[in-house]
Amino acid sequence: MSEHGLLVSAPGKVILHGEHAVVHGKAALAVALGLRTFLRLRPGGGERLRIHLPGVGPPSVEQLDVLKEFAGIAADASAPDSLAVLAFLYMCLAISAKYGDVPSVDIAVWSELPTGAGLGSSAAYTVCLAAALLHACRAISCPLKDGEATARWPEEEMTLINSWAFQGERVIHGNPSGVDNAVGTWGMVPTLRILLTNTKVPRSTKVLVAGVKEKILKFPAIMNPVLDSIDAISQECQSVLEAMPTNPSPEYYPILEELFDINQHHLNVIGVGHPSLDRLCRVTASHGLHSKLTGAGGGGCGITLLPPGQCSLLTLHEAVRVQSPPLAALSCPPADSLAALAFLLADATPLAVEAAKRDLCACGFECWETDIGAPGVTLHSSSSLKAEVLHALSES
Amino acid sequence: MSEHGLLVSAPGKVILHGEHAVVHGKAALAVALGLRTFLRLRPGGGERLRIHLPGVGPPSVEQLDVLKEFAGIAADASAPDSLAVLAFLYMCLAISAKYGDVPSVDIAVWSELPTGAGLGSSAAYTVCLAAALLHACRAISCPLKDGEATARWPEEEMTLINSWAFQGERVIHGNPSGVDNAVGTWGMVPTLRILLTNTKVPRSTKVLVAGVKEKILKFPAIMNPVLDSIDAISQECQSVLEAMPTNPSPEYYPILEELFDINQHHLNVIGVGHPSLDRLCRVTASHGLHSKLTGAGGGGCGITLLPPGQCSLLTLHEAVRVQSPPLAALSCPPADSLAALAFLLADATPLAVEAAKRDLCACGFECWETDIGAPGVTLHSSSSLKAEVLHALSES
Q1: Which are the contacts of B229, defined by CB distance < 8 A and separation ≥ 6?
Q2: How far apart are CA A328 and CA A32, in angstroms?
Q3: Which is the catalytic residue, given A96, A121, A177, A180?
Q4: Which tens digits make up the pLDDT trace of B50-67?
Q5: What backbone phi and psi angles, to 5 degrees, belong to B105?
Q6: A292 and chain B: CB distance < 8 Å anywhere?
Q7: Are B124 and B111 spatial neighbours (Cβ–Cβ below 8 Å)?
Q8: pLDDT digits (tens, 9 = 90+) for B360-395
Q9: Scanning A28, A144, B117, B142, which has the fewest C-beta atoms within 10 Å of its C-beta?
Q10: Mean pLDDT of chain B
Q11: What is the DSSP letter of A276?
């Protein structure tokens, strides 16, 4: 552990296809996002948190009530801060009980991910936390060698991190699908540049999900085929992403764009569109870019594919690298073992993208230009982190 | 026959749901349009057209070649005028051969329907022609009694008109579905007010149909469910239209609107949308009105539902009337016997409609406010026709 302590990060996720359909038993495709949560763990000052829980299993209502009381969190608390503290307490205690005491630690967390935007910020947090706590009590190794910028844990240790992150997710979300923590753990090598746009239109996922269900009950013969079509889109998209690195060719990109357009229409059909999202799609379309909503819809975030430049296509063969289970399909079991996915894209059509971003901001939206297909949970040397991140972690 | 001769009219048609899907074996829903073609038949000056064709069946290539030569029409003629003359010649000869000579006649035709806009103008013409020619050679009765404004033929005579109109359609279109002439013959009692908007964007039906087929072959698992959903929309719409007159309630109208929205998205998915149609939908949506493309798409016409006013809903029970086979479903056999359809709607939300029309015209589009669900082939007294129509028929 360096003077900066243990530095861990995990990516957020974004749903490419299958939001809502997944609630009705269809496949969905979630990918790692190039926006991450960072965690720094340092030895603590000696005050130790030492509670033993007999027979640690999944968090029970009773256990959580005790922890809420201990931490001074209201029984019905739903603020991200309170839930994050609760997840930390639970994971600390449960990991201690299983692998031996977690030593007194000082933990700082900072994230590039907005909370409550459907971008897997809570999973990125619990993945970081699981990695740090398991490392602190020596349940997993420290794969970062001197002089290395970053390192990742071996397969079986990532499985352990993922399973504990999932327990943390259960504390925060009650009944999560397990996809967000899988994406945060396994990640994916860089593949596509995207624009993530927050319409800032607030919405209730619960109301939207109920609306879709109601529409399916109202028009089953019309709506069920739409869900089937969305299912096929997720599978087609996954096939295309799998095929891309082994045979990178410009023909794949328009297919991804076409699938985006089709699914956006489908999402409007099932009733989770919103005029702000229509506007987002129209603005990007006017610059030749293809968008769809991502997540719950009804406002919230949209995702825009940024096409690869000519140069990047020429250097694709050099960019191909292989990394372990990258794409998590929301269908259970989640992670379909996806072969190498590397489609490192250089900046392309920068003028169109800049113009689109300007127009989107003029609508009052907020944009991030980032990648999908980021590495999963990662151990960092302090020198490999941006000064901004280190500074933020020191402040917190 | 009055001094004005025999006056016949037949309505155009508009596709409510199922365009394109019908090419792939799905149901579609076509309804009569409140825009009509009028035909006046008067005894001729004595020059008689007398050609006997042995064994008259469907028009053969050889027969049509002879007729083309006779009328001085180029072998590959496709102009509406040439095809109309050809259909007239064929029907004249074939009906003469079957029912005895058509006497020397003078025929004038005038239409409110634009040609080549997918609104069934050719079928409205052949329906009028079939009725007039069958009447001239006494194969059908003259149901119009003195002092009556309009009259319709009895069931079995309409069947005969329809079958001859279909032969005329074959001359004009080669391989028509038979829906247009069925709608033109049977029609439907007034049911819904609509706005028909021509984007004036030219398109090739052939290219659009081929594009849909290509897309289905490219993404069968994604596209076939969309066709299934469109099929279910046609059926659901038909059920709603059937249910409306027996139990008229404001709850039906939003369903029709919802089905329009869903199908418009589906038509975009199968690739027959167009920015001009998106604009049409957006403009009408801004006035609370729901639209979809109708026909081939890729430009062409859009149809907008105009909602019933409060008053019309209160007087619905008085407006209910029953008429024979009204809705023609494109599924073969075409005309699903549809029960009473009468939902006479008074002018509603006139301000919103006027504002929408103004905005659509500002886009360079052309609008007609009309009804769907018009009476089928009808015999008129001269006093029941608008002066404009009589004048047009005298001019021609």
Answers
A1: A221, A222, A223, A225, A226, A229, A269, B262, B266
A2: 9
A3: A180
A4: 444 444 556 777 778 888
A5: -130, 160
A6: no
A7: yes
A8: 999 999 999 998 888 999 999 999 999 999 998 887
A9: B142
A10: 83
A11: H
**Residue of A222, A229, A233 lying closest to B262 (CB–CB):** A222
Kindly report, residue by residue over A148-182, the tens digit of the pLDDT. 999 999 999 999 999 999 999 999 988 888 889 99
Q: Is A122 a catalytic residue?
A: yes
Residues 228-267 of A with CB under 8 A from B: 228-229, 232-233, 235-236, 259, 261-262, 265-266
Report DSSP letters for B156-206, one per residue: HHHHHHHHHHHHHHHHHHSS--SHHHHHHHHB----EEEEEEE------HH
> What is the reported pTM?
0.77
Of B219, B223, B236, the CB nearest to A219: B236
More confident residue, A102 or B277: B277
Question: How far, CA to CA in Å, does B274 sit from each of B135, B292, B304?
Answer: 44, 11, 16
Question: Looking at CA atoms only, how far is residue B17 from chain A in angstroms?
Answer: 13
CA distance B144 to chain A (A): 45
> What's residue A107's pLDDT?
87
Q: Is the pLDDT of residue A344 over 70?
A: no
Cis peptide, bond prior to residue A333, ω within 30 of zero:
yes
What's the CA gap between B181 and B128, in Å, rounded? 10
